Amino acid sequence: MSATIIHFPKSKVIRTVPNEQLLKGKEVNLKGNIEVIVDEIGTELMLHLEHYGIDVVDEEKNHRDMLFVYDILRAVLYRNAGMPHHLHEFLNKSLTMKPLADLLPKEFPDDFINTGGEGLDQEAEKAIREIIKSIEDHENEMSMYDDLPSDVEPEPETT
């Protein structure tokens, strides 16, 4: 018994999708996923606020505020995905970020931790300083990503 091998025709052309079309499809899919996330988180947030007795739906001013919260959440997710959003420029201009270490005191007063009037013991101060150093190190590591472009470029096709 001899096996008959049927070869795939070499004259057939495999259709390729252009990079622009792939990127557009990915962006449309990503935007759809972002909308699902915004809807889920927004709905949960509204339920939690109503649980605390805050009426976020009936009054016009609260309704507008919730729409703004939704848009802020959308801006966060768009930035995370490397896509532009109309609120990014406003947020960049109106908010200044400070390293967490700058917000903590450089010197600790005696009553920083209540230790029976003896002030902050050396081990606690050392632990806090290590935490501050760790935060500063992390911020320095993350700053290397500040200069990366915000748009996503496809990798060149290799054949």
Commentary on this structure:
The protein is mainly α. It has 2 domains: 19-96, no CATH class; 97-144. Helix content is 55%, strand content 0%. It contains 5 helices and no strands.
Helix content: 55-70%
Radius of gyration from CA coordinates: 27 Å
State the end-to-end CA separation.
Answer: 39 Å
Number of H/I helices: 5
Helices and strands in order, then pairings?
Elements lengths: L18 H33 L8 H22 L6 H7 L5 H4 L18 H22 L16
Helix pairs in contact: 1-2
Offer a concise description of the structure.
This protein is mainly alpha-helical and 159 residues long. Helices cover 55% and strands 0% of the residues.
Task: Name its key features.
single chain; 159 residues; mainly alpha; 2 domains; 55% helix; extended
